[in-house]
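Exercise 4. Each item below gives a protein and its sequence. For each, produce the structure-token representation.

Item: DUF3185 domain-containing protein (Variovorax paradoxus).
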Amino acid sequence: MNATRIIGILLVVAGIAGLGLGGFSFTKETHQAKLGPLEFSVKEKQQVNFPAWASVAAIVVGGALVLLGGKKG
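Answer:
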């Protein structure tokens, strides 16, 4: 199996995961303040969404690499 097919398989898997998950979220700590013995911080939850068109494009390109990647012309 050559590198082109491996990259194609990874793109297909990433595209399927992008469609299935739709995105991910993470928590970021910001705005720290100290007032004497008291400490304040704010935790922000942020969402990152994967565009559906990008996931479909990754599947299509990955499929093309898997099908055409091993052929030498």
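Check: Residues 20 and 55 are 9 Å apart (CA to CA).
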